[in-house]
């Protein structure tokens, strides 16, 4: 079986396995963007803990060097609208946010009524949210549009035997509901089932012998590989955590090689590639 950490080496999402005592409501997203015409990775982390909500942003170059990072700490999150200027490679990077009307669906990440943007010398590096702009900030009003794409996402989900989330496996594809179902209590032979929408794409029987594994299926015509590790559900504590990794794009290389040049192939792999790392906690 492929190793989870090696699969995530290019996405910028940390693969650390948290303990139940330290787990918090957290969503971390990595975006492939452009800064001064060069690729960069922007990581946005939304978290919610006992002290309140927090937002952290970091920008890395292709070599992994951190260009800048900032955090709106929980006790300052009451400042729901503002901006922060940072110097990056001799240029000005403006980080703008407006969360004053943000609506949340029980998690740390807003679902509507918000705006977060990174503007570098009047060029939009990343824009998130459904509000058109932070209207009273000139950099936001004059900035050119961006074409950043989400390449990875990590989140925590909680349940008894059913765990749900949604993801878009390519930046031009549609969002799909992902359902993971596994009942490990009251049965001698638990099984694991994963559905994309209403379609079952994975069923693992004799789970006690197959608690780790990987399998490939297709979504929107693209190959998606899922890796699972449910050891702690079966042999750990009653509130154990299982890990699921969904990854598209890595298997696109052979498909694209048939009709694309090397430069086009690299662009398309970036375009289609996406990784979802899901920590599923039993409650």
From TrEMBL:
Matching InterPro entries? DUF868_pln
Domain of life of the organism encoding this protein: Eukaryota
Output this protein's name. DUF868 domain-containing protein
